[in-house]
Structure formats: C-alpha cells, structure tokens
Here is the input.
Amino acid sequence: MEDKKSTTILTFLRSKRTITFLMFFVFSSVIWLLIKLSKEYRATYEVKLNYAEKNKERVITDVSIDQVSVTLRGKGFQLLKYNLIGRDMTVDVTDAGINEVSVNLSSEKYKNDLLKEVFDDDATIISVSPSKIALTIDTLTSKDVPVKTNIQLIFKNGYMLSDSLVTEPPYVTVYGPAEIVDTMEIITTAYKSIEDIEDGFTYDIPLKEAAHEKLSYSTKEVTVVGKVERFTEDEIDLPVRFINVPSNVTIKSFPKEVPVLIKGSFVDLKKVSRNDFDLICDYDEIDSTSTYVKTKLNRKPSNIQIVNIKDDNFQVLIKTK
Here is the structure.
C-alpha cells in the first residue's frame, strides 16, 4: 500500500502539468516580490554612535546616548539591504565647544553623514530620535603625582631597613581631563608582600590601574629599592625638656633623665649621641591630679627606631611663684 502511494506522488511530480504549474507559481511569486520591493516604504533602524575628537588636547568625558533610531523612506530593495549590514556612524565633535555641548543630529551636516556612512543617497531620512546628543568635552592636562607604595615587609629576626624605601620614579605623570587630574594627590602601587627579608632588595611593582578610563600614566610600574641591615638594640638616657611652661611656674622632675630603648644597625647606633634626640614634656598635657607624666620624642635620627620610652616612673613637682 505504501509503495503505491509513493509511486502515485512521484508520478504526479514528474507530470508536465505539475512542472508547468510549479514554474508558473515561482515566476509569479518573483514578479509579485519585485513589484512589492519597487514600492516606497518607511522603516526604522538602530544606528550605533562612535564619537571622534581629533584635537589631541581635548577629550570626551561623557555622552548621553550611544545609539539613535533613524526612520527612512526608500525603495523596498534599499531598505531590505540595510537589514543585512552593520550600522555604525562616527560623530565628529572636533569643532564643538568645551564643557557641556549639544550636537543636533537632525542638522543637514549629520544627515548627510548618516547617508554617506550608513545609508545610501537614494534614501530619505524622515527623522532621527533622539535628535540631540548632550556630551561633555574637557581639555587634556598633565600632572606629576607622587607614588605611594603598598608593600608589607616581613623581616627575619634581627634585620630591618637601614634607610627609607626608595621609589623610582618617585613621581608619575598623569594625563587626562583637567577636572579629574587636578584632584589626584597620590598614585598607589599594587599590593605586594615580601617575607623573610635579610638582604637588600629591588622589585618592579605595577601601579594600580587608573580609576578612570580617560586617564593614562607615563609608566605602568615603579622600582622599589630597600637597604637592609642587621640591627641591634641599645638604651640611652635622655634629659626631658619642658615646653609651654608659664613664666610663674617652676618644674622639678624625678629622675632627671628618662631611659629610652632604641633600635638600629650596629654602625648607626655607634654614631648617635644624646644631642640627636629631643625628649619633651608638654605642660598643657600634664594631669594635675597625678604626679606621673608622659613624655614624647620631638626629634630623633631617621635611621633609628624607638622601641620604648621608659617613663612610667617619671614624676614632676610643680610650683607656682
């Protein structure tokens, strides 16, 4: 039964009458389609906007939209073609002003640009929506900004920095819109942890990426150098200098000197003297209800660290004239 049905269908398809009918149907459909496509229609297309600023001393910092809807009138052939191609337009704002700027895409200039870049001259632009673009244009500027390292240093027992870390370059030139660059105070490196330090070190450390896409740096990394030495501790007795004492007040202290535990390299500790330090006590900070007062260091050598000021038993006797 199935074989008979298959044979009947093949016979029908191979008959001259059927072939003639199919050819006529295809031909009629093509003619109908050509007639339809030759008529005028309206259609709306989305066009992506790319902004161009040819002046190297200016930069676009903000735009209100990145695409528009364009309504065209044209032959069906033309409109069908636009569905098959990408639709991007470059908006040149080189001649625009500074700060808040409005660009009218419905003007003849930009309509002509649309026809040249995206559509054909034979098409007619009915409307562009939105027709106006708000954008912000700023002048480019540069500024040297200091670099701040974000490094954790973990030393082996008995070792420390013998001097401050050196960053090269210490400043990085930042380029970008003036409104952003002028507010920048520091540039931070990426975080890095260095462990088991016992020798001097040199590392290239990348800068953190710029927070704004319109910013650029003169370099992407800095070199950090640290000098390391074995350290030791020592104790030095320092006299106390009182400050902000009224003229009608006298102060006596017990003891006269305060022991201070300091730390540094062996060579540096051999060089320091009492005159390199200034241990002070501020009269305005003395608690009148207690005879024990605290002191603080006003000056010390940069290569010496203070471990402890042993002033727990430091007393004063205050007399008014």
